[in-house]
Amino acid sequence: MSDIVAFNSVAEEAAPKAQVDRVVAGPRGRKPRRALSSRNIVIYGTLIVVALYYLLPLYVMVMTSLKGMPEIRLGNIFAPPLEITFEPWVKAWASACTGLNCDGLSRGFWNSVRITVPSTIVSIAIASVNGYALANWRFKGAELFFTILIVGAFIPYQVMIYPIVIVLREMGIYGTLTGLIIVHTIFGMPILTLLFRNYFAGLPEELFKAARVDGAGFWTIYFKIMLPMSLPIFVVAMILQVTGIWNDFLFGVVFTRPEYYPMTVQLNNIVNSVQGVKEYNVNMAATILTGAVPLFVYFVSGRLFVRGIAAGAVKG
Amino acid sequence: MAGYSEGSGRPNQWLRNLNAKIASVPMILTAVVIFLGGTIWTVVYSFTNSKLLPRLSFVGLDQYERLWDAPRWLVSVQNLAIYGIFSLIFSLVIGFVLAALMDQKIRFENTFRTIMLYPFALSFIVTGLVWQWLLNPEFGIQSVVRSLGWESFTFDPLYNSDIVIYGILIAALWQGTGLVMCLMLAGLRGIDEDIWKAARVDGIPMWKTYLFVVIPMMRGVFITTLVIIASGIVKVYDLVVAQTSGGPGIASEVPAKYVYDYMFQAQNLGQGFAASTMMLITVAIIIVPWAYLEFGGGRKRV
Amino acid sequence: MNLRSFAIALSAAVALPLSAANAADLEVTHWWTSGGEAAAVAELAKAFDATGNHWVDGAIAGSGGTARPIMISRITGGDPMGATQFNHGRQAEELVQSGLMRDLTDVATRENWKDIIKPASLLDSCTIDGKIYCAPVNIHSWQWLWLSNAAFKKAGVEVPKNWDEFVAAAPALEKAGIVPLAVGGQPWQAAGAFDVLMVAIAGKDTFQKVFGDKDEEVAAGPEIAKVFKAADDARRMSKGTNVQDWNQATNMVITGKAGGQIMGDWAQGEFALAGQKAGTDYTCLPGLGVNEIISTGGDAFYFPLLKDEEKSKAQEALASTLLDPKTQVAFNLKKGSLPVRGDVDLAAANDCMKKGLDILAKGNVIQGTDQLLSADSQKQKEDLFSEFFANPSITPEDAQKRFAEIIAAAE
Lengths: 316, 302, 411
Known about the structure:
The structure holds 3 protein chains of 3 kinds.
Chain A: H1 2-14, H2 38-65, H3 69-74, H4 87-95, H5 106-136, H6 142-152, H7 157-171, H8 177-202, H9 205-213, H10 218-226, H11 231-246, H12 250-254, H13 263-272, H14 280-314
Chain B: H1 13-23, H2 25-45, H3 62-69, H4 71-102, H5 109-117, H6 124-134, H7 141-147, H8 164-189, H9 193-201, H10 206-217, H11 219-234, H12 238-243, H13 255-265, H14 269-295
Chain C: H1 2-14, E1 25-30, H2 35-49, E2 54-59, H3 63-76, E3 83-87, H4 93-97, H5 105-110, H6 113-116, H7 121-126, E4 127-128, E5 131-132, E6 134-136, E7 144-148, H8 149-155, H9 163-175, E8 179-181, H10 187-212, H11 216-220, H12 222-237, H13 246-254, E9 258-262, H14 267-273, E10 282-286, E11 294-295, E12 299-302, H15 309-322, H16 325-335, H17 351-362, E13 365-366, H18 369-372, H19 375-390, H20 396-409
Parallel strand pairs in C: 1-2, 1-3, 8-9, 11-13
Antiparallel strand pairs in C: 3-12, 4-5, 6-12, 7-9, 7-10
């Protein structure tokens, strides 16, 4: 809430003409001159325009999801709803149909959680150790494997479906949750490893050397020195993975059975199965509901992100 | 946890590397078995006439000849080039400029950052759907502007073969630039305050400091970002499917979609593998020498 | 999961075979998710559940292109479903040859499929090396022109009785702000419309020569040139459709925003769902009102080979349920398709379906392109025609040349 109040005051700062009208309102003394400098106008002006561009689709999505179908057919997608209805939300969550199953998105929600949480943790844990080994404990051949990994980031997922089906089948874990977690770990690995490697390489080398002199080993340095300094990069990695895994459709549906199908399968089914007329309001509500978890993670991790960066900045 | 057993004093060189090697086993397995193995497998089968299931009946270069004769593949390659170049430039420039603005000790940084990053939380299926709607001439931006009185206003990128790829670009940038901004911001925050102070004392203009001092120091971040953006470009598929399904006609087809459609809809694995091999070769020609210089060579990066 | 299937296997081993004759969950995958389709699937599920087994629905939206790789991965990955939809024809050939699919010959002989399934070509498509591997459930024909009576009324012209009249009426429709011919953006729609034009304009024999015998000279010849001329008309008439899905295009006809649509008989399910009546609200012209011939493609269910005894039994139960006369009637009425057996009573059928049944009874049928061409050639054709319909700069002559090349390369 305080953000909104504060936001208004920025809007005022950014519009110097408004000060004339404010004579009655407040103390004579204006805000410090600095706040009105052309530099700040440019900065905030740009940011606000950009923010509007980013918010426009969200606005349309929310407004549409609150309208009934007759109102949507009438036209203006930017107009706020005349009559607010939450029916599309209820329908998207609890009763939208795919084939014979009419229980909406709720069906896949816990599956998505069950897939995303372990996959995110495992993939980040492995990749961070990889990155650490590559940055601080180089061994012969490491660069070669790493290069292959980076090139692997460019392979379209679809191409790898058959080879991976074969590998998982031979391992006897095709169709299990474990198999899916491994697949997510594999495809998250290139980018995450790169991310961690570059981050660890950027930490001051003296810290590492000092620890070595003290006799600390591979894991001790990782847990006692590297981890505590790496909050921002873990947050970035988490954002990448939670988003990627939560929104994944292809792997979720190819490598598991229906009882593990994630929420995106239902989303795809809701959005793509057209029952006569496209129910845009239900589509939009389903969209927002599916995006809610990553969004929530962003809101929470946003603070961590700043704190992490602040902590990281102390390092110098 | 084996590291604890090393005890004090100078650890044995071999043991130290052993730990790093053990820790890297998952990476080595992934690189060799999945990526290298999968790639070789794909390339081998691209010389066969495999249909629904992979089969080793070789037909030489037939699949490649057909590939380069297909108008749809040529359109796809061209689209990817346009999309790739613009997407790369715009993502980097917009992302960096936004990050630089955010780094000016502004208020509500949290709010702005969340606003810019949230599109990234949505899946491509969703992004495609929303933008398909906003860009629909019948009830999207065009109709709204027209209803405001500008009757001749035309903005229908998704229904115009000549500019459809830019319509997809708009949606892609909307979704992707927030993350680039975040990465850049993380990089900027890693730059020492003293450098800024020194630059100010020397009277170097701000833009010069960014261009010649800060950006070179952010090399690692730029590389990470570049790989993320570029790999996303090569793999672009869902967004196109959700927005246009490759239409109008074949005007917005992309290579990854060609691969997928021919592998699974046309049930011609050989053709799909040939197309993906072409994609891989292109990527490899660009990436491998650079990656080896960048990551290999044994020098320590900052 | 393993524990559960182990338990089932155990109970199957303990119980006497006679008493264990039923009660298994069978997962059935399909891509029938539009309104009319889902209602039709519900009929199948109801009938199957009545046998004491349980239909576990595995619907995957987004048409066969999305669903098929999932089905194939599941089957080849060793975690197959109980039964799965494919368009019969050549899609599952290789899975059968790899020994992954179940032989249904026993059930088929027991229930006399050879005699009851009409036309016989449907069962032929299920037969590989003399064994039967799938259960056909319906006949879908492509050769229909659906017209909105309201749209023609608004334009002030008579509802056309054939393709030529329709083309002649197009300017009047356009003047009234109506798109004459709705063609959705999905590539298969444009390709399908062309096949329909070919049967109507060039006739059955030419169709058979081009797609059956893959005769490239005929494909490059004057008969097909006429078809491309007609396709050029259709292209002009479809300008401004601006929708993707077939049923959205159908919806344009239902609401009178479009004059007509060339689409298979499954469109009927959408008309029915919208509460429209054949004859009064919409008109259907089989064979575009020119050549009353219909193709007999359709859907079939395939059954992966399962180790589980109980489930294998349930597969048999499902196969025979699918061809049960009652199920056939209930399912096909909802789906808008024709039953695969000639001996069922479709008194409840509407005018359009009756027209179709008549033509079927007369034997004016051709095989569908799915049965004649490989998926690969079909896809190439789709690429060509979706480009042709969207891009007016491609001349009919150029398109025909590319078409002949595709036919020449087809197997």
